[in-house]
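Q: Structure tokens for this one, please.
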Amino acid sequence: MSTTPLIERADIVRRFNRFYTHQIGVLQEHLLQSEFSLTETRILYELASRGDLTSADLRQMLSLDAGYMSRMTSGFEKKGLIQKVRSATDARASQLHITERGRSVLAPLEKASREEVIAMLERLSEPQQHQLIVAMKLIENLLGERDSSYLLRDPQAGDMGKVVQQQAALYTREYGWNSEFEALVAEIVARYLREFDPASDRCWIAEKNGEVIGSVFVVRHDETTAKLRMLYVDASARGLGIGQRLVEECLRFARQAGYRKMVLWTMSALVDARKLYQKAGFELVEEEPTHSFGKDLVSQTWAREL
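A: Here is the predicted structure, written as tokens:
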């Protein structure tokens, strides 16, 4: 069978799984020396951190066999680590509740596990630690249940550098644009920072799990016209409605600032962005062929009355 990109990627994932399984095994070796298995420790941890749960909840969460689960919980009850309590929402059902003795047994296991992870992290420099945590969060976000929550906020120190870096990386990766685009973005950001006037200009940063995942700018084009600039949503956050929300915030601010019209400049190749602009009431007013960012493109100007 011929090798395809998907097969190659699957092999990379499998190789990472083997590597990470080994790392976790090294970290958890001494936990196996306690009287509790890793699965038993995990059950105590879930009850301590999440509160009372049913046996069915724990089985589904940890993918455990019903008989195995029953034997473990019976053993915990005999040792006084957990007790069954009546469900607050269903009088016919019972939940498992960790006792104070159970918490006292779990505490040193948690402490030892945390200390082992700290020892592993201490072998890395501060930048490497940050890089590792960001990569782990990304894997969790991509493979876990999608959380649609995010925060819109004003820019903070360091955000503008991230805006330049992320936009340059995204448009190079998805459209093959060259360094001319990064230079343009850097110039726009630098001008915004130098000439910022809170009465006429605004930037929003979209944040999720502590990471910048989107941004947009409104600046003065002329006395009665605002300009929407550099709408961006990271690939990991698409489908959450962030782009539409950013455009709506731009329009709201422009009206409050007294502008009567808003314009924007884009490329025809940015299909998803153009759909957002059309949905928000913008109309195409001008377009022309151009050779920009190392590509033959079609430059477009869109506008709408406020």
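A few notes: The chain has a mean pLDDT of 86. The two ends are 59 Å apart (CA to CA).
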